[in-house]
Automatic annotation (TrEMBL):
Organism (species): Clostridium lapidicellarium
Ranges where the ABC transporter domain occurs: 15-252
Transmembrane residue ranges: none
PROSITE patterns attached to this UniProt entry: ABC_TRANSPORTER_1, ABC_TRANSPORTER_2
Keyword ATP-binding belongs to the record: yes
Matching InterPro entries: AAA+_ATPase, ABC_transporter-like_ATP-bd, ABC_transporter-like_CS, ABC_transporter_ATP-bind, P-loop_NTPase
Xref: CDD domains: ABC_NrtD_SsuB_transporters (cd03293)
Database matches in Pfam families: ABC_tran
The name this protein goes by in its record: ABC transporter ATP-binding protein
Length: 279
């Protein structure tokens, strides 16, 4: 179905993904010929303003490819993506991005990395400092304000990237496995904090993860992808109440039902291809 004929301006959708397909030119096994690789096919999704979407799927199924397209960093081979009814033409300040292995500015301290977007927004120095202090505290980096990225661990760098994206306060947050490199305890508190921020600010979030539990805990809907070609297999509605508190949610029946359903969807193809999804 094409959305060209319906009212794209319909503001109830923050993001409309209209039948995208992404083909990469790759070298063949013998290294001499060019081949076409279908990374995404027939991909349709409508995301409401303020919705929290998580995406799970086996490694290589096209999750990052999809997020890069939403971010405007890569163009679909065919199909279109709309934000607030307008086609995406490139990266823009309305979308905060935390990419896989997202690099920090090596010449800026933790604090100055977090303040980067705020400088672009021309927020006065004192206010910038207040905001960066708040987010440094939130991601547990108090005392590390003046360190440079090379003086931090991988998980700490990732937390700076998260703080930087949140501090900038974009309407849409695109997150590619943002908590993958942090320890389990920090991860759970970051999940709760992200939900807190989301509930207060009505952001629209698209969040990629390899953890089924994380996907269910956070989302209104979980997009389950399949590979070869990368596509949506099913979208699961998560009917857990909000606000979600880790200790209450994870033992509930609804949580386990959703988790098991997604696990089965992902493992139905497991005999064909090993998935890298953890529960
Ligand atoms: N620039 C590129 N050129 C050619 N092929 C690419 C390119 N980027 C990605 N691919 C291929 O497209 C497929 C999807 O890649 P993508 O990075 O989107 O997967 P993913 O679902 O994010 O995987 P992971 O869970 O491992 O991060 C993979 O087979 C990958 O090899
Ligand atoms: Mg990826």
């Amino acid at each position: 179905m094409s959305y060209e004929n319906i009212n794209i301006k319909n503001r109830q959708y923050k993001i409309v993904v209209d039948n995208i397909r992404k083909v990469y030119d790759v070298r063949s096994q013998n290294g001499q010929d060019n081949e076409r690789f279908l990374a995404l096919d027939n991909f349709n999704l409508k995301v409401k303003k303020g919705e929290f979407i998580t995406v799970v799927g086996p490694s290589g199924c096209g999750k990052s490819t999809f997020l890069d397209i939403l971010a405007g960093l890569s163009k679909p081979t065919s199909g279109k993506v709309y934000i607030d009814g307008e086609p995406i033409t490139g990266p823009a300040l309305d979308r905060g991005i935390i990419l896989q292995g997202y690099a920090l500015f090596p010449w800026r301290t933790v604090e100055k990395n977090i303040e980067f977007g705020l400088e672009i927004k021309k927020i006065p120095k004192e206010e910038r400092k207040k905001i960066s202090e708040k987010f440094i505290e939130l991601v547990g980096l108090k005392g590390f304000e003046n360190r440079y990225p090379h003086e931090l661990s991988g998980g700490m760098k990732q937390r700076v990237a998260i703080a930087r994206a949140l501090a900038y306060d974009p309407e849409v947050l695109l997150m590619d496995e943002p908590f993958a490199a942090v320890d389990a305890q920090t991860r759970e508190s970051l999940q709760e904090e992200l939900l807190n921020i989301w509930e207060k600010t009505n952001k629209t979030i698209v969040f990629i993860t390899h953890s089924i539990e994380e996907a269910v805990f956070l989302a209104d809907r979980v997009v389950v992808m399949a590979t070869s070609p990368g596509r949506i297999k099913e979208i699961i509605n998560v009917k857990l109440p909000r606000p979600r508190i880790n200790s209450q949610i994870r033992t509930s029946q609804e949580f386990n039902l959703s988790r098991n359903k997604i696990w089965e969807l992902l493992h139905r193809d497991a005999d064909k291809k090993q998935t890298e999804v953890s529960v």
